[in-house]
Each structure stands twice: as structure tokens, then as C-alpha cells.
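Q: Here's a chain of 158 amino acids. Please give me its 3D structure as C-alpha cells.
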Amino acid sequence: MVRWAVELSEFDVQYKPKGCIKGQVYADFVVELSSTATHQKEGGFRWVFFIDGSSNQQGSGAGVIFEGPNGLLIEQALWFAFKASNNQAEYEALIAGMLLAKEMGAKSLMAKSDSLLVTEQVTEEYQAKDPQMAANLQYVQILKETFTVFELVHVPRE
């Protein structure tokens, strides 16, 4: 390893760690356990996406995985240049997923998240008291109106 490091040092090659991938790993796991046919039977949804946001001391990020018609699979990893809590990262992932679905022309959409707080706030079971969470919730409510059918489902972490 040291020999390679010395030889590569003349080319100014730098190693940068990839960062937090917890959300991506979780989203990949959920996709492996579920099939597109199952989602299409659930209320006739054609577009399904899974979200997971996370944060730590180095930063925050999120993962979004889409399943569309004809086996279409889109994976998106997000890194945020601002500090965010886990729930704020989850909201950002939800918003990014909804915007991508809107751009792809989806009309019927189901989102699956492991955040009970975000899920309950969007379904209006809980209130958003934090100003940033309330702003995110309001934006999600506006985006919901662009779809004929939208459902956010809580997927337990277990």
C-alpha cells in the first residue's frame, strides 16, 4: 500500500471517503425484499419510492429509490450541504422524490419511509412544531396536490 501511495503521489491523486451510506443501504434492502408486482397490486400504484434520510457529525444525506412501470428502477443519493436532523433529512428525501416523480410524469404515487414522525405529520396525525419541519410539511402538502393519488406509508425499521 505504501509503495502504491508513493508512486501515485506524483499524480496528485487524493482519496475522499464516500461518507454516510446508511440510507442507501437501507433503501437497497427494502427494494430487494419487495417486487414491483406487489406494489402494483396495492391500490393500483404504478410508481413507488423508498426514502431514508440520515445525519451525523460529518453531514447529512438521503437515499431515494424509485420503482416505476416496466421494471424501471431509479436510485438517487443526496448529500446536503447544510446541517439537518434525521427527520429533516427524511423530509428532504421525500421532497426530492416527489419532485423527481413529478418530473417523470407520475400521477399515482406511493412513498415508503421509516420515519414515523414524518409519516404521521404528512398524514396529519401529528403537528409540526419546529419551524423548519413545518415549512417542509407545507411544501410536501403543496406537492401532494400535483398527484391524483399520493400515499405515504410507514415502514418499521425492524
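Q: Can you summarize the key feature?
A: The chain has one domain: 18-154.
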